[in-house]
Amino acid sequence: MPLASINGTEIHYDEHGAGPAVVLIHGLGSSGADWAFQLPALRPHFRVIVPDLRGAGLSGKPAGPYRVEQFADDIWALLEHLGETEAQLVGFSLGGAVALEMALQRATQVPSVVTINTLPSYRIDQWAKWWQARAQILMVRWLGLPRAARMIGARLFPEPHQAAMRRRVEEVVGANARRPYLDTVRALMNWCAADRVAGLHSRLFMLSAEYDYTTLAEKRHWAERLGAEHRVIAGSRHGTPFDSINATNACLYAWLSGQPLPPDAELSVDGPERTPAMAPD
């Protein structure tokens, strides 16, 4: 099990393939294992580095509070440990915030960034955001993580053919320790790059689900402001790397290899015939 001593804790990571470095950064309550459906598309072409953030997966879970800036600094230290001076970054949800923060910290070392269902600010500036954040914290406190995970899974993957994905959420999110999970929620709530986006010099691609927690209008606003390429996956919910594997992989490979992105018309959620019967182990 590869572990690196980073900034006072142990950071677990996996490596796959060879070539230009690509870092895949997972979402809240998850781990690097959640990128299993993307690895077959990327590892023949890139050196894919897949860390677990502190407080998650097999990484250490030191006492908080946590900060998105700290997550970003951890991954930069990991890349230095692995002998990489630059990398393309792919982040899902929370991981997208970490990727943007990394690009802001070291603009010349990040050729490009992909965010999936991410905004450059999670500061509470709207009623809907306040409710999303508070509901998640209260749900975990009152119901416990296993029951909260069942509710999250049902919302992310409501279709009968997505049962394996629902079970994956229940098992993985439900197994989190409450303290680091809530510390990570608070880290995301307290992070904002809105007033620093002029410092982003990386090529930026935003991939959005049609039915994500936050609106497409807000995503489009930020894509225009950031000069980012933007694509929408029809029918997808927040768990896009799971419910839209084929569209996600097509977009990631095209962007990371410098090829044209598929148009929106070709991007849609996976149907029953294309949905794996089992989630990653």
SSE layout and pairings?
Elements: E1 3-6, E2 9-16, E3 21-25, H1 39-42, E4 47-51, H2 68-81, E5 88-92, H3 94-105, E6 112-116, H4 127-143, H5 145-156, H6 163-174, H7 178-189, E7 203-209, H8 216-226, E8 229-233, H9 240-243, H10 245-256
Helix pairs in contact: 2-3, 4-5, 4-7, 5-6
N-to-C order of helices and strands: EEEHEHEHEHHHHEHEHH
Shape: globular
- Percentage of helical residues? 25-40%
Supply the helix-strand structural class: alpha/beta
Mean pLDDT across residues: 93
Helical segment tally?
Answer: 10
Give start-end ranges of low-pLDDT stretches. none
Strand segment tally: 8
Keywords:
single chain, 281 residues, alpha/beta, 8-stranded mixed sheet, 10 helices, 8 strands
Would you mind describing this structure in some detail?
This protein is α/β, with parallel strands linked by helices. Helix content is 39%, strand content 16%. The longest helix is centred in the middle third of the chain and has 17 residues, at 127-143. The protein has helices spanning 39-42, 68-81, 94-105, 127-143, 145-156, 163-174, 178-189, 216-226, 240-243, 245-256, and strands spanning 3-6, 9-16, 21-25, 47-51, 88-92, 112-116, 203-209, 229-233. The relative contact order is 0.15. Helix 1 (39-42) links the parallel strand 3 and strand 4 (47-51). The chain has an eight-stranded mixed β-sheet, with helices on both faces. The protein contains ten helices and eight strands.
